[in-house]
Design brief:
single chain, alpha+beta, Phosphorylase Kinase, domain 1, Transferase(Phosphotransferase), domain 1, 2 domains, eight-stranded mixed beta sheet, two-stranded antiparallel ribbon, 9 helices
């Protein structure tokens, strides 16, 4: 017997989207392989019973919306932490909605958001399903350096990543967990495109003290690990420099702040120190830029826009050399 959830809108506003109340019923006539959710009249979302993976208190599943494949991020509202998880899910939904409504030309580098559903025990966020895995999976392929060269693929992907984060920052938001696993790759018409995903740790940029979330240790900026320090767009920039170096080399830098933190039992390098392991495969200008992005003092990191400009210049140089 499968489950059918009928959605009924109620006039309560939690944020810019409508709060949706779900009433659960059971229907033996529905198929065994899907769990249909009625969003509105004649609008069915089918959810596969088999999840793609589980991350913390969320399950990521595949489904269909308007007969198009979608990804579903399902927050389980556990009795003990329901209030915290509910707030986190609502905040992520509000960030996604804000990005979705943006008319910025870089919005195509953010995962498309369709909406959310709330039932008594879950909140489900409905998003576009990127069809070509995550950057983490691609880089982890043993043949990565042969199949995805910097010149043919990496530099273009790096530019798109920075453009996506440029939009995020322009709206006063910080992602706070930039890493290859949170950059999906979608293939359309034979070309790969970036889709930034997972805004579960995102926050509004402010000058106040840090939140408790540290993102992912090996990509985290030192101000995140030091606690009680404000985050800014430059916090994401630190992580992005690591990702771009990884795109170029296929390997993770082995003496970054996060690694230092893990190996030295919580000791954090002091402000102004650098990590000196940026690849020499970059042009001198790009290498210098990425090195500056790894400054442990966030205020001394450069602007993201400069990185886009330098990578575009590198891409143009590559194209000229080919011709």
């Amino acid at each position: 017997m499968s489950r059918k959830i009928i959605i009924k809108k109620i006039p309560k506003k939690l944020f810019s989207g409508e709060y949706i109340q779900a009433k659960e019923t059971f229907d033996s006539k529905t198929t065994k392989n899907t769990l249909p959710l009625v969003l509105k009249n004649n609008d069915i979302l089918e959810i596969s019973k088999y999840h793609l993976y589980r991350r913390g208190y969320c399950t990521i599943q595949q489904g269909k919306y308007h007969n198009e494949p979608v990804a579903l991020k399902i927050y389980d509202l556990d009795d003990d932490s329901e209030k915290v998880i509910l707030q986190k899910a609502q905040l992520e939904a509000s960030f996604l909605e804000r990005l979705q409504k943006s008319e910025n030309k870089y919005s195509k580098y953010i995962i498309t958001y369709h909406g959310y559903i709330k039932s008594p025990d879950q909140i489900t966020l409905v998003m576009e399903l990127a069809n070509n895995n995550t950057l983490f999976s691609i880089i982890s392929d043993p043949n990565y350096s042969q199949t995805k060269t910097w010149e043919n693929w990496g530099v273009r992907i790096a530019i798109q990543i920075l453009k996506g984060f440029s939009l995020i920052h322009s709206l006063g938001m910080i992602h706070c967990d930039a890493k290859p696993a949170n950059i999906a790759i979608h293939n359309a018409n034979g070309k790969d495109y970036v889709k930034v995903i997972d805004f579960g740790d995102a926050q509004i940029e402010n000058k106040e003290k840090n939140s408790n979330s540290v993102g992912t240790m090996y990509y985290a900026a030192p101000e995140v690990l030091r606690k009680n320090e404000p985050r800014s767009a430059k916090t994401d920039l630190f992580s992005l420099a690591i990702i771009i170096n990884q795109l170029r080399t296929g390997t993770l830098l082995n003496s970054l702040i996060g690694a230092y933190y893990v190996l030295n039992f919580g000791k954090i390098l002091s402000n102004g120190q650098h990590c000196e392991n940026i690849s020499t495969q970059f042009t001198p200008k790009v290498k210098s830029y990425l090195q500056q992005c790894l400054n442990t003092h966030s205020m001394l990191r450069p602007e993201l826009a400069k990185g886009i400009s330098l990578l575009k210049e590198e891409k143009k140089t590559i194209s000229t050399l080919r011709n």
